[in-house]
Design brief:
Length: 97
Amino acid sequence: MRDYEVTVVIQPQLEEAERTQVIERLSDLLVPGSKEDGALKANHWGVRQLAYPIKKFQEAYYVLFEAKIDPTRVKDIERSMQYNEDVLRYLVVRKDE
């Protein structure tokens, strides 16, 4: 298991309940099963202005996850986020030790 930072940009027009469901699904995707202490941290940045329009959106909801992820699962996680219509952009970065 290695430490990763996963930044996710979510569509801004989602209701609070829908946004919470999307974030929960992403949390389960990153760290499936039981959540260990410190295995996943979510930092909600809120709605921010985008530097350029993405799918005709001028702003989006940002969430930064810090997670301990098995490196063999990173490709599957990226593929799942790519096909999620609520996720506009994502970035998975391994943290230096």
